[in-house]
# Entry
Amino acid sequence: MAFSKTAALAKNPRHATDTGSPEVQVSVLTDRINYLTDHFRAHAKDHHSRRGLLKMVGRRRRLLDYLKRTDLAAYRKLIEQLGLRY
# Structure
């Protein structure tokens, strides 16, 4: 399964051409994180990509913290929709 950014962009848009809202950014990062997690099951020694994964997880965490501060209802809806446990 290859990563598809267009599928991730279509999940939580605020409007038709939305690519920069926190909800869309978190959706894209979550899809990339899930893709890399599957990648590491087959390639356990790929440490360079693992560093990128950790950076993505941190970026997603910061975006979720921002969303929680600014729009709690959207935050709760997003974590429920994506199946995150924050």
Observations:
- The chain has one domain: 21-82.
